[in-house]
Amino acid sequence: MRITVMTEGEQIISLDVDPQETVENVKALLEVETRVPLQQQQLLYSGREMRNVEKLSALGVKDEDLVMMVSNATSSTSTNDLSFNPDGSAVNPTAFQQHIRGDSNMMTQLFQTDPELAQALLGNDLNRLQDLLRERNRQRSQLRRQQDEELALLYADPFDVEAQKKIEAAIRQKGIDENWAAALEHNPEAFARVVMLYVDMEVNGVPLKAFVDSGAQSTIISKSCAERCGYVFCIIFTLFLCASAIEFLDNLFAILLRLLDQRYKGIAHGVGQSEILGRIHVAPIKIGSIFYPCSFLVLDSPNMEFLFGLDMLRKHQCIIDLNENVLRVGGGEVSVPFLQEKDIPSRFLDEEKYSKQASSSGTAVTTDKSNTVPAGGQSSGATPGGAAQGADFEAKVAKLAELGFGREAAVQALKLFNGNEEQAAGFLFG
């Protein structure tokens, strides 16, 4: 249909428009014809103002109808209020916010393209809005700078070494960006947070959230957790072995005194390092409904509690079944589910990196120089200057290295047992 628009200067303009056209689109056509910015236009039909979001048919506009266009009296002020500072922030954030809020089409587009900015416009925090506008301006500036650099490279001297380096870097970055975009589309799970594997266990009747870590060489318990469990790990195990309750009571106090073997003091090296206070050689842990014998290294590490390492995973023939999301123990006689994220204490989720630092996946380096030979151990006749001297010691290190152990681990194990090759090998395998 055709409508006639009369301006304040009595200029008459004929427009061919669709009845379903919005007033905002009509203003855009008039901006081309009259050079009057869309924001400064005010259209009147039958004495009533036509709002941007309304359609001509809804307002009752018919073919050959007359529409008046007047200039908004506050247009100059509004234009200034809607301008931006050099850093991208709005000169008048309140006016800018109200203006965008009043344009439903623009708000719809913002919710699709930039929901964060749309939420800020609907909120009441103007500081947040200003920060987002500055950030968007910075991003646009960076994008323009990258485009300018790419354009400059197209016209760069092909024999310029520096230009060739920049071209190579741009090609490599483009490949990275394409790979990232492909991952977002085809493998979005790769960007999600991975929750580590935890299961419920009991030590001496005390429930624990055990961190299952096949990358840790040894099973570890923290000093604080051991104290909470009362250092009485062998009570149930001793009940199985003792002939009577009286024998159990007679042995209980001795068990408590000699439970922590301090001959195994040292330093656990992993991502970080922690002090090894000693070793508890045997204690029953309850997995599901069955008790299993287990040994621990006790670490002075306040940021982890209990780590079920590779040594016990191998000993009890455990299977980490990620298809069924369970840990199978004893070749499948017991299956316990891995905990969901909601069941894992938040402090564990925040401190998983500390569990890795406490992991003994590296080398246990002995630091207790006053008692390096375990009770009943035999000396290999090393020189007084220490076991680390002479070709004989290097030959023993080489033999242990052939078994698959690192040189540093072999050296420290030999030092621990004063050069006894068999005891060192047993320690490394254990």
From TrEMBL:
Keywords: Aspartyl protease, Cytoplasm, Hydrolase, Membrane, Protease, Transmembrane, Transmembrane helix. Pfam families: Asp_protease, UBA, ubiquitin. Residues 1-76 form the Ubiquitin-like domain. Residues 390-430 form the UBA domain. GO terms for molecular function: aspartic-type endopeptidase activity; polyubiquitin modification-dependent protein binding. Belongs to the DDI1 family. This is DNA damage-inducible protein 1. It comes from Acer yangbiense.
